[in-house]
Amino acid sequence: MVKPTKGVLSIASIAALGVLAACGTTSTPTSSSAGATGIAGCHGTITVASDMPLTGGDATDGPFPAYAAQLAVTQANANKLMGGCTLKYISKDDSTVLKNGHDPAQGAANITALAADPTVMGVVGPFNSSVALSEIPVASRNHLALISPANTNPCLTAVVAVCSDPTIAINTASLYPGPHTYFRVIASDVQQSEIDAYVAYSVLKAHTIYVFDDQEAYGRGLALLFMKYYKADGGSVVGSVSLPGATTTFSTQLSVAQSKGAQAIFFGGTTGNGCGLVRRDMGSAGMNIPLLGGDGCEDQLFITNANSGAKTSEANGSYATSAPDVTKLASSATFFSQYAAAYASLPAPYNNGTKEPYTAYGYDAMNILLHAINSVLVGNGGQPPSSSQTFRDDVVAALRQTSYDGALGHTTFDANGDTTNTGFTLYKVTNGAWVGVNTYAVDTSGNVSVKS
Amino acid sequence: MSDQSGTPGAAPGGTGGRTGAVTLVDQGNLGPRTSEGSSFFGAVTPIFRFLYSLISKNFGALLLALIVLSIFGTFLQGGATLMGNQIKNALVLGAIYALVAIGYTMVYGIIELINFAHGDVFTVSGFYAIFIANTLHLNSLATSSFGGLLLALAIVFPLSMIAAGLTGMAIEFVAYRRLRDAPRLAPLITAIGVSFLIEGVMLVREGPDYVTTGQASWINGTAFTIGKVAVGYTDLFVVGTALLLMFALGAFVQRTRLGKAMRSTAQDRTAALLCGIDINRTISATFFIGSALAAAAAVIYSINYGDVKWNIGFRLGIIAFTAAVLGGIGNIVGAGVGGFLIGLIYVFGGSLIGGAWSEALIFAILVLILTFRPVGLFGVEVTTRA
Amino acid sequence: MSENGQPVVAIAADTTTVTDKVIDLRAIDVYYGRVQALIGVSLEVRQGEIVALIGSNGAGKTTTLRTISGLISPRKGQVLLFGKAIQGVGAAQIARLGVGHAPEGRRLFARMTVRENLDMGAYSRGDRAGIRTDLERVYTLFPRLRERDSQLAGSLSGGEQQMVAIGRALMSAPKVLLLDEPSLGLAPILVDAIFEVIREINAKGTTILLIEQNALLALKTAVRGYVLENGAVALAGPSEELIASPDIQRAYLGM
Ligand SMILES: Nc1ncnc2c1ncn2[C@@H]1O[C@H](COP(=O)(O)OP(=O)(O)OP(=O)(O)O)[C@@H](O)[C@H]1O
Ligand SMILES: [Mg+2]
């Protein structure tokens, strides 16, 4: 997804990333292959990395999965997951001052630099789909595994109907000049929009809807997919509009929606591009119908914006689907307590992994990578394959076979590298906070079911 | 800064340092320069000329017809309720555009500068209003009683306006004054620089997100309902305040000594000097008043919408600038009317053909005015440099 | 020029009392960018005089008036008004010192009414009664303006505009009035009328420095005259002497 930018960077917290590598933890990873006795004689250096936006406007999001990935490495070292081999970790920042946050060009440069190091066997990242677009080809060309904790753009892995839309214009095939080395542990917007459509039609019982999008790849893609599935579900889209992210008032279009009898509003886009302002203007126009958005809307800023208008309860009646509320999963409890213990000395909010929805995704992504490397070592008689490229290819092959039980539950990948562990939680604004209602899963034939 | 239109005759130019000639552009003489060389063009040119002068002469009527048609189209599409709601939306937007447009037009009128930083003065004023309201605890005062609201308004308006006025004066003093007699491009580029500077400072100070002003709760409730169109007190407040300020400004410029100094300086700086008018003070005052009106617009905006953002004035400024051009840049009344017209075009265009086109439509209008009627709907002298 | 290239009449030596000289230019050099418009011009106007400034197009007459008004500053030399050097004093301040200037091209406020233009002339005055008297005086001098007082200045005829320009300068109750070609573009009958008014104004005590293409008329009106050529004073002296000068007659009087 495209994260809304917020806040400013905290230098201290980023610096802490390096320092923390020294802190050991006593916990054991949840995987079974932790013993690693067969690889005790392994020698050589294996490097893994993470690439996240750590500074600028993204400083409130990106560091969390990076810290989580680092924690996974620290634990793997404590457990000698690589046997006698040295396991190193590099943290890359794909933000630039110029962009005040994630920068696709910086991301590509980071992957290029990492790929040039023959010991690097995989990267956890990136955070933003726009960065993924420039990183995937570099990783593919260099046979380097790339596992994203947060990219939800469907076109990164497979061609779906919306990829050719002018605002998205992603040629999926051209992203992979070499082997398909990209994976993700988060479900894509295809699943999200299927669930959104289901929620709008069957949960909110809105049979007519008006759709906004913010003209950006994430928002427009989500809106287009949403409309497709919503119509398939039997709903009627009474109107839709693409407005630039800088739009400050939505009252004109809301009046149109009102006059067309919309029973709900869908917003494909981010809070930074107006999701909360739509809710604000709905309040001013006296529209008491639900607003539904994707994960781009589910943040505190939405509530602030929505409530900035005259009607103070505007945020109520606002819904958004987002990454499953993994903090509630039994499988994640251990991870979050380990995170809290390992990073207790960090300034808030970085000392609490539950403050960001993608923290656990970063952790599982790194663990999946480490276990794939481990399985290559085991399969190769306890030693790294002789050539770096063979090693990397073997790691990608091992990743395809992933069957991992981690903080997010059980993860396997399909042929496109997409996780089969789909699921989105429907959140509703209740008393000034997003509260999870239900978590929905969607199967490959598009059937949505309540997961929890 | 014109108050009248269509004055024939020309005031010959050659001011202090400006080597410009001031001529009133006659609407009929604005045809495209044509070469009578080839026979084809020779034959076609009169037709173009005719069409050109037809459009150019009737630009206002055509625009008005377009607006009326789109209002009617909206009525056909969504009935009286949609039409009424959109008129309300348009007037609210238009009121804000109008107030901001006046600042552009006043400054242009007096120093022939498109003050690109004006939109950012609007932004800054929004934050002034937040600061003032929070420091003086006006939010609780305004929501306590009607009297409290009036008191809060009576505090936040003048204070924000004075703060913004001083900001505008400072910008003029620091960035434009020395360049007053420089080639026009120099202050224009400086203006863009000042705009970037303000936006940068606002971004760092206020962050990249919308900031809730807390003033949206000041005015609440539905004043009356026409059919199914609910007109809120806020809507009345926005439009009423804007009109009030515009009439006050009109009276000020027409009647007061300073207002007359501003008008005469705008018309002929050298002659104003010879009348003993302190040009620097007058230009400062113009920036003060223009910026103060932007601040009034920002307060209105803040009360109506409830949030502001570091770059909110940028697009709003460009649209307001278009309004100023539409009304005839330099013409205060024109800017006011232009603001409301642009509000109508923005809303009804967006309502009819989709909001994604609203801004494109505004800029299309800008291009059309510049092509067919550079003097704007209400005409004002156009100064060209020799 | 006389045969030997000297001015017919030497520029008056600095013998009179300082206070007597309303305008006193001392060897001023004025430039427009790199172009020199005035070269060592010295000129003085005494209390109560009408002084004419004549010369061909581009000689520097307008530049001289602009320098006196402070619209442009000399690079060299001194400008004294009422006996005081005015270096660094702005044009607006000079206007308030009592210099009225009806500039070349009239420069009316085209989108203001006649009355407003006249009011602007009195901009820096506080004496309401005095302003009313002077307005009455202007209307008496130019009865036409009274009829047209709410008409936009830009829509007046050329002659009417000239009346407004002079009227506006008078409204500041100037001690000295600078008139730059008041007869430009006027019908002969109006020219006479305007000059009649100029004499009248002077008779009421206002000192006048006058630029005029019609050299004969100017010199007949003035007590003294200066002839500018290529930015320098070529001749200066009492009007009768200038009129009598064969050079002047040939060059400027068309005799
Ligand atoms: N703004 C200017 N920039 C450059 N040169 C100028 C400027 N104004 C005047 N000049 C030049 O200075 C010289 C004197 O000009 P000035 O206007 O004083 O002449 P003038 O005697 O008043 O002529 P006229 O009788 O035509 O009005 C001329 O050569 C003119 O070209
Ligand atoms: Mg001249």
What string gives the helices and strands of chain B in order?
EHHHHHHEEEHHHHEHHHE
CATH topology descriptor of the domain at 21-98 and 174-252 in chain C: Rossmann fold
Q: Distance N terminus to C terminus of chain B?
A: 22 Å
- The overall average pLDDT of chain B, rounded, is 87
Fill in the CATH topology of chain B: ABC transporter involved in vitamin B12 uptake, BtuC
User: What is the average of the pLDDT values of chain C?
Assistant: 88
What are the segments of chain B in which pLDDT stays under 50 over at least 5 consecutive residues? 1-37, 381-386
> Percent of residues of chain B in beta strands?
5-15%
Strand order, largest beta sheet of chain B: 1-6
Reported for the largest beta sheet of chain C, the result is: 6 strands, mixed
What is the count of helical runs of chain C? 10
- Low-pLDDT residue intervals, each spanning 5 or more residues of chain C: 1-18
Rounded to the nearest angstrom, the radius of gyration of chain C is: 18 Å
The string of secondary-structure elements of chain C, in order, is EEEHEEHEHHHHEHEHEEHH
Shape of chain C: globular
The CATH architecture of chain B: Orthogonal Bundle
C-alpha end-to-end distance of chain C: 16 Å
Strand tally of chain B, please? 6
Question: Can you give keywords for this protein?
Answer:
heterotrimer; A: 452 residues; alpha/beta; Rossmann fold; 2 domains; 8-stranded mixed β-sheet; 5-stranded parallel β-sheet; 12 helices; 19% strand; disordered N terminus; C: 255 residues; 6-stranded mixed β-sheet; 4-stranded antiparallel β-sheet; 10 helices; 36% helix; globular; binds adenosine-5'-triphosphate; binds magnesium ion
